[in-house]
Structure formats: C-alpha cells, structure tokens
Design a protein that fits this description.
3 helices; mainly alpha; single chain; DUF6877
Length: 79
C-alpha cells in the first residue's frame, strides 16, 4: 500500500515516534490518528510507510499549533 509518496522523511520508526508524543496529544487527536493508522494497517499497510510518517507530521504540527487554536494539548509549562 502506498500513498503516492515513497519517502519516509528519514524517520526510522514513525509509529514509535508517535507513541513517544502520544501523552501530549488530546484524546480526540490521538483517537483520530489511531483510527487512521489502524485502518491503514488493516488494508495491508506497514508501520514504516510514508502514510504513518504523515500522521507523525500531523501530530507534531498539532503540538506546535494546537494552542494557537485554543485546543488543550495536555502539555505543561515545563514542556
């Protein structure tokens, strides 16, 4: 399965990277990412596919911009 983009942006294990930041994401965002990844894997995709990297970029972008949109990210001031 391929989303049309072969590069994984140099990320060795995008799923592991998502797991590392999952505690900082609000439940609604985490559920969305989980559902998308689950559907991808159920259709024969791999955890190293660029689609999973895309989900990682979405999660990171949310953490960077979520507060700007008034969405609670679960981060503390020490993060």
């Amino acid at each position: 399965m391929n989303n049309g983009c072969k590069s994984n942006d140099g990320v060795q294990d995008p799923l592991r990277e998502i797991l590392k930041i999952s505690g900082k994401l609000p439940p609604v965002v985490l559920r969305d990412i989980d559902q998308r990844i689950g559907d991808w894997l159920a259709m024969g995709g791999r955890t190293t596919d660029s689609y999973i990297v895309q989900q990682l970029r979405y999660a990171k972008r949310f953490l960077d911009q979520g507060d700007e949109h008034g969405i609670k990210t679960g981060r503390t001031t020490s993060d």
